[in-house]
Each structure stands twice: as structure tokens, then as C-alpha cells.
Design goal:
CATH architecture: 2-Layer Sandwich
Helix content: 40-55%
CATH topology: Alpha-Beta Plaits
Largest sheet: 4 strands, antiparallel
Distance between the termini: 27 Å
């Protein structure tokens, strides 16, 4: 019974914010290491948490992939649902445009590190 509870807890916490997935394919510019990009992502997640956003992100680095995609990394963001993502996306970029906010600093730092190749949204089911 204890093992079943642990399994349920792990599954529930891993999928708590898995309803909407924001997937950005990024090409590193060479100006930052992957570790530096992860640090920026960690700063992003800290700002999101401190300001009450539901959105969180991870960076996925391919271990193996089809030829031509190994030089890309993937931003995988999660939000409870599409309307939540949309409102937080708007709120976040309104803060970016103010210029002297943590959000603006994060976007400036990421601008040095990567070029967005594509962006897709997915409903996880």
C-alpha cells in the first residue's frame, strides 16, 4: 500500500501542470553554454514562482535525434491550461516591455544565447 501511495504521489506531482505544453525549438548562438542557458531558465522559474505565475519551464537537450536536430535545444514550458498560459504570456511580456524588470533581464540574457526556430503548443491528455 505504501508503494502504491508513493507511485500515485510521484505521478500526481509530475503531471500537476501538464495540461498545456509550450514547446520552443531553439538554436544556441554559441554565445552561452547550455549550463548558462539552464541558469537563465532557473532564474526565469524563480521569477515566475515569486510573482505567482503557474507556468514553469525545463530545457531539454537531445541525447540522440535525427540528423540536423542535435544542434537544437528545447524549451518545454507547462501551464495548467491554454487560457492560463495565454494570460500569463501576456502578463510576462507586458513586464518585459517595461525595461527594468526581472522579466526584461531574462529576455535580454536569453536573446544572447539562442534563436527561436519554432514554437508549438500542445494539450497534454
Amino acid at each position: 500500500m505504501k508503494n502504491l501511495f508513493i507511485l500515485f504521489t510521484l505521478l500526481a506531482t509530475n503531471f500537476a501542470f501538464a495540461d498545456y505544453q509550450d514547446v520552443i525549438k531553439m538554436e544556441p548562438t554559441g554565445n552561452c553554454t547550455i549550463d548558462e542557458m539552464v541558469e537563465i531558465k532557473d532564474d526565469f522559474n524563480n521569477v515566475m514562482q515569486k510573482k505567482g505565475y503557474d507556468y514553469r519551464a525545463k530545457i531539454w537537450v537531445p541525447t540522440f535525434a535525427t540528423e540536423g536536430t542535435l544542434n537544437h535545444v528545447y524549451w518545454i514550458g507547462t501551464a495548467p491550461d491554454l487560457p492560463d498560459f495565454a494570460s500569463e504570456f501576456t502578463r510576462y511580456f507586458e513586464e518585459v516591455t517595461k525595461g527594468s524588470t526581472p522579466e526584461a533581464g531574462i529576455e535580454t540574457a536569453f536573446g544572447e544565447c539562442r534563436v527561436e526556430v519554432s514554437r508549438s503548443g500542445f494539450q497534454a491528455r
